[in-house]
Amino acid sequence: MSLDLVLLALLMGAVTYPSRAIPLLVPGVDRLPKPVLAYLRLVGPAVLAALAAASVLVVTKSGGGPGLHVGVESIAVLVAMGLVIWRRNLLLGIAAAACIVAIARAAGIA
Amino acid sequence: MPSEHPGPRSRTIPGAIRDPDAVRASRRRLVTEAAGTAVAATAFGIVYGLAARAAGFSIVEALAMSIIVLAGASQFAAVGFVAQGLPWIAIVLLTFLLNARHLLYSAALAPWLQGRSRAERAAMAHGLTDESFAVSLAHFKRIGWGDARGYWLGAAFIVIPWPIATLVGYLGGEAIPSPQALGLDVVFAATMACLAVAVITGRRELAAAISGAVIAVIAALATSTAIGIVAGGVVGPLVGLLVPHRPTDPSDAAPPSPEGHDEAIGVAP
Questions:
Q1: Are residues A75 and A101 located together in one domain of the fold?
Q2: Neighboring chain A residues of B218 at a CB cutoff of 8 Å
Q3: Residue-number span of the structural domain to which A60 is assigned
């Protein structure tokens, strides 16, 4: 059984815990400067959107380099986003995306 | 078990409720709210366990993530990146960016919990998630003081079910011979996209998300996926800050709170 990624988990934990703990443990740090607060509020949407877009639109070509890919996965993700906007339900959106891709592959479209 | 009293340095607002029955009633409401988040956490934990298995994680590795990191979005991201063979440094950097929002939560809770011992606050920090923050701050505001027991109750509803659900999802994955045929490989991208939609509460967030996505794709095509995502995550917020200030924009409300914080839906934990 592989344990290599336990070290990765520890590293991820090491960069996550300070964000959770520093304002609680260090007096005065709970009042972050306004520009820092404003930037931090925007990091979440930007990183999540970057992750989604790069994951669904960028693939590794057979030659090894990155390439643009627009397929049924992109449509599935757009439908999922639409469902979240409409129904405010994350699980519904994710389940719909998986179903669309599964049906398309079963039908030989993707 | 923490004491009932908030401590001399903790925030206590005028009219704070000390009646034990009223405090217990607020705790019951907290438990009801936290139970709802636990249901969502369980569902996501199962999906995470499935995805981790499909990405080649061992059961110990999948569980270690859920226990040590305890942050759904970054765990999903790590699963996707490990599957793509991206370097660890990129995964760790993205984890830091994704979880930097906890600074906001911690800063909002700090005044309520300053009277607790340093050791207890250090332990509390590990259980600070989108959901535990939301339910505990709402409870503190209802009663007017930082109730450590209430915080622990809220945190328990995430800290306990998340690893258990991971285990269930991982073991359940044995029954699924081909995750790709079921579309499970798109779960990661869909989760990230849906979360992005969920945390957009104003024009600035929208601008940051769109620019982050565009920059990520362009930079990824020019260099590598990892560099593209980091570039989108770092530069996107700067573009968002260029959007003119609007006083009624929910993104300007500070500190974040369950009534108006920037995790409109959130992902467990």
A1: yes
A2: none
A3: 32-69
Residue B47 has pLDDT above 90, yes or no: no
* Number of separate helices (H) and strands (E) present in chain A: 4, 2
The answer on A109 and A75 residing in a single domain is yes
Residues A75 and A62 in one domain: no
pLDDT for B192 equals: 82
Look at residue B70 and give its three-state secondary structure.
Answer: coil
Cα–Cα distance for residue pair A13/B71, rounded to 1 Å: 9
Would you place residue B266 in the very low, low, confident or very high pLDDT band (cuts 50, 70, 90)? very low
Confidence of residue B8 (pLDDT cuts 50, 70, 90): low
DSSP code, position B65: I
Verify that A17 and A44 share a domain, yes or no: no
Residue B238: partners with Cβ closer than 8 Å, 6 or more residues away: A39
Answer yes or no: is pLDDT of B159 > 90: yes
Whether residue A40 is found in the same domain as residue A56: yes
Query: Is A45 within 8 Å of B68 when comparing Cβ atoms?
Result: no
Task: State how far the Cα of B50 lies from the Cα of A24, in Å rounded to an integer.
Answer: 34
pTM: 0.74
Q: Is there a single domain that holds both residue A75 and residue A55?
A: no
Whether B41 contacts B158, CB under 8 Å = yes
Size of interface A-B (CB pairs under 8 A): 327
The predicted-structure confidence for B207-251, as pLDDT tens digits, reads as follows 999 999 999 999 999 988 878 888 998 999 999 999 987 655 544
Q: Number of folded domains in chain A? A: 3
Distance from the Cα of A61 to chain B's closest Cα (Å) equals: 11
Are A74 and A110 within one domain?
A: yes
The full set of domain ranges for chain B reads: 20-181
Going by pLDDT thresholds of 50, 70 and 90, the confidence category of residue B168 is very high
Query: Do A107 and A76 share a structural domain?
Result: yes
Check A54 against B188: CB less than 8 A apart: no
CB nearest B228 (choices: A39, A58, A89):
A58
Report the pLDDT value the prediction gives residue B20, as an integer from 0 to 100: 87
In the numeric block, the tokens 């560099």 are attached to B227
